[in-house]
Amino acid sequence: MNRRGILKGISALGLGALFPVGRLLEATVQNTGKQSRTSCFLTPQETEGPFYFDTTLVRQDITQDTKSGVVKAGLPLVMAFRVVDLNCVPMPNVLVDIWHCDKDGLYSGFPGQPGGINTSGQNFLRGIQVTDADGRCSFRSIYPGWYPGRVSHVHFKARLSSNTYVTSQFAFPEEFNKDVYATPLYAARGQNTLTNATDMIFRDPEPEGLVMAIAPNTTTGGYDGTFTIGVKVTTGLKDPAPDADSFALRQNFPNPFNPSTTIPYFLPRRSRVKLTVHDVAGREVASLVDELKASGVHEATFNAGAFSSGFYFYTLDAEGFVQTKEMLHLK
Predict the structure, then answer these.
(1) Are residue 224 and residue 271 in the same domain, yes or no?
(2) What pLDDT is stored for residue 209 in this prediction?
(3) Number of domains observed in the structure of the chain
(4) How many CB atoms lie within 10 A of CB 89?
(5) E-assigned strand segments in the chain
(6) pLDDT, tens digit, for every residue of 183-212?
(7) What's the domain range around 140?
């Protein structure tokens, strides 16, 4: 079904009729202290990442590449999500998209990945589910590995048809990452030298609201995880506009790109601005802006024609506001 057909079906029938809600998978997690709250909250926006492309792949088990039939190896991971608003009211009929890399740090659907591997035409480890009347949905997957510059993480969107409530990503507790990397399936790549605190996106050992609560599953030998997505319904039916009082760094476009891309950012007042680009080793490869700028929306262009394909990170630093996003250069 194409995008137009999906939107027409949503309008006529509602999400529940078009995308039947799958039976919830069991994901019982004891209190780990992760994502614990005394009140409801708004999930922080984070970079989309360069690998979101399939808006119609509705399935609960995302381990298989539907084109080749190959099932990705890895420790089983059941992820249970709940979408609520700021008053803790469950939100039914919300599309939850997730995508992540495999145990070797590879995403489906793109060339030029670590080791020069090309996964074009594949769609493993990505999928969509629709929340039920209690705002819940779940996925069966594998524990993601790592790639240079990043810790293990999962990307997600919560959306209603084509309108996005939130785009973000979550990390995992570091003690579980270490245990997973030591297992036979993952040990060949060794332990990741990065932690949540040194990751280019999270920059925190326990990024607030962005760590999945997980626990071992003794039956599967893998893990069960739970994650709550908090959205602001009144203003969340469109991609968020800049807050007039807040600094903001936006996702570059196009992404992936070759050879150049545009990076938008917003300044609430006249400010000294630094906008830099780093490679996965943390080396600065370009300084795009280093000057006083007037308030308002600005754009900077990054030309990677002289650089190799791969992941790059761009960082906005303005009056104590520091934010980093991820982009992918494909030659």
Answers:
(1) no
(2) 85
(3) 2
(4) 10
(5) 76-85, 95-99, 126-130, 136-142, 153-160, 163-171, 213-217, 222-231, 248-249, 260-267, 271-279, 284-293, 296-303, 310-318, 321-329
(6) 999 999 999 999 999 998 898 888 888 999
(7) 3-231
